[in-house]
């Protein structure tokens, strides 16, 4: 499964990069395949391990502020691995074919 999520502190002003970095640090230390862009961090793994990483990422931000916003989207597709890469490669292949 692929989980794309965004964790944002609330009530700390507009500069939230330091808080977001705490969440991304948890993701990167998890060992799961991951990718971070301007809006979301995506991880790939089994349900329990992916949700555990999301929970710990939220907790890392929550530890520094009293309120956290979580946006989460999941692609639950048993038996598929390397989806983070293969989905993008498929789109790029179609773009190249023009």
UniProtKB/TrEMBL annotation:
Transmembrane segments: none annotated. InterPro entries: MTH1187/YkoF-like, Thiamine_BP, UPF0045_domain. GO terms for cellular component: cytosol. Coiled coil: none annotated. It comes from the Bacteria. Residues 3-92 form the Thiamine-binding protein domain. Pfam families: Thiamine_BP (PF01910). Belongs to the UPF0045 family. This is Uncharacterized protein (TIGR00106 family).
